[in-house]
Amino acid sequence: MAMAKVAVLPQIKLPSEKPFELRTVEIPPLVPGAVLGRMVMAGVCGTDVHILHGKVPVRTPAVLGHENVARVEAIGGEEPLYDVTGKLVHIGDLITWLPKSCMQCYNCTILGDQSKCLKRVGYGGWVVPADQHPHLVGGFAEYVWILPGSDLVVLPPDLAPEAVVLGDALRIMVHGLERIGGLEYGDTVVVQGAGAVGLMGAILARDAGAGQVIVIGAPAARLDLAKEYGADAVIDITQVRAPERIQQVLDLTGGRGADVVFECAGVPAAVAEGIEMVRINGKYMIAGHYGDAGTVALNPHVINKKQITITGVWSASNKHFLRGLTLLRKIPLQKLVTHRFPLDQINEALIAAERQETLKAAIVP
Ligand SMILES: [Zn+2]
Ligand SMILES: [Zn+2]
Predict the structure, then answer these.
(1) Are 189 and 212 in contact (CB under 8 A)?
(2) Could you tell me which residues are beta bridge partners of residue 361?
(3) Bridge partners, residue 310, by sequence
(4) Confidence of residue 261 (pLDDT cuts 50, 70, 90)
(5) Could you tell me if 175 and 231 lie in one domain?
(6) Does residue 26 share a domain with residue 134?
(7) 350 and 268 in one domain?
């Protein structure tokens, strides 16, 4: 019987309490349509940190890891298996798999919005608990057992796995761009937040035709990466206070403010600050509040007077990931994965991610 190492999260605890336990489990035999994947890389997402803080519910005991790349080791049954684009899946292919929407609920069918599916399930904490079949239900493991009917994507062989484990941030921002109706060529875009989502927002804005991209965040190493990836200006929040940050954006935009501001900071105060940076008739998009970080005082007069359009964006549909793949093939994003950890250092990886020592950490089992 083949065995696999897996990092199990028995219950929700803070990263500093080293909550993950490394276990060895039997790999259950495949059923028709199931896939056994040997994990190549799994991204450590900000959501994983939120999970350990109890801000995003999961089904414990859990196997986390939802930004995954694996190589197909075996396919169950005799029938040919296809990915979400109709490509035949072969043994040896590099694959990822996306959260599964039911396509039967109100939000899936009437609203046509997979990202808001009422029965959405994803690997890495949600599909089934780790003590139930098939046990290997997240990316923080040597092997993953992918259920029949999952939304597989066969990756182009020339695509770096680093680019795909960053794809969670990218697909959210592709979705966000869609929700604001895209950019006008030459727009000034301000990005609040220099984490993976913020940097993806900056890179995507540049690629989508922005004339000027301004990234606001910290620490300095992340802002350096932002510049390397095309930000025209960066503002370090540890050096520049909020009123001066607003003034700097106005100075960089002829006193008008930015055409579009992306909130990727996850800090409620960023929203009050950000709407001050938007121009008249400009757009403000909130992407950083996947976890509930609380409330903030806002002045509605600013929104009213400037006729600002405010939009939220939540996760993404398959199409946003698939469209994002085109960027991954154009721009080498490997450098954004700043830290790699073996599976037995999963606790250290989460501590580093929580402390924001990493831009993006990945588990390489
Ligand atoms: Zn994520
Ligand atoms: Zn649904």
Answers:
(1) yes
(2) 44, 339
(3) 284
(4) very high
(5) yes
(6) yes
(7) no
Residue 318 domain-assigned (yes or no): no
What span, in angstroms and rounded, lies between the C-alpha atoms of 58 and 125?
5
Domain count, the chain: 2
Q: How far is the CA of 4 from the centre of ligand 1 (A)?
A: 24
**122: in domain:** yes
Q: Crossing angle of helices 242-252/268-275, nearest 10°?
A: 40
Q: How far is the CA of 54 from the centre of ligand 2 (A)?
A: 25
Instruction: Read off the pLDDT of residues 216-235 as tens digits, 9 standing for 90 and up.
Output: 999 999 999 999 999 999 99
Q: Is omega for the bond preceding 134 within 30 degrees of 0, making it cis?
A: yes
pLDDT tens sequence across 21-35? 999 999 999 999 999
| Closest ligand by atom to 116 CA | 2
pLDDT at residue 167, rounded to an integer: 78
Q: Report which bound ligand comes closest to the CA of 44.
A: 1
Q: Are 17 and 138 members of one domain? A: yes
Residue 127 sits in a domain whose CATH number is 3.90.180.10
Give the contacts of 173 (CB within 8 A, at least 6 positions apart). 197, 200, 201, 204, 262, 264, 287, 313
User: Whole domain around residue 56: which residue ranges?
Assistant: 3-166+333-363
Chain centroid to CA 73: 26
Helix, coil or strand: residue 177? helix
Q: What is the DSSP letter of 57?
A: -
> What is the distance between the alpha carbons of residues 299 and 16, in angstroms, rounded to a whole number?
38
3 state DSSP class of 275? helix
* One domain, residues 153 and 173: no
Q: Indicate whether 181 and 125 sit together in one domain.
A: no
Task: Give the CATH number, domain containing residue 188.
Answer: 3.40.50.720
Q: How far is the CA of 365 from the centre of ligand 1 (A)?
A: 19
* Residue 253 clears pLDDT 90, i.e. is over it: yes
Distance 56 CA to ligand 1 centre (A): 11
Question: Is the same domain home to 30 and 148?
Answer: yes
Calculate how far, in angstroms, residue 80's C-alpha sits from the geometric centre of ligand 1: 30
pLDDT above 90 coverage of the chain, percent: 89
Q: Which ligand lies nearest to the CA atom of residue 49 in the structure?
A: 1
Q: Are 177 and 259 part of one and the same domain?
A: yes
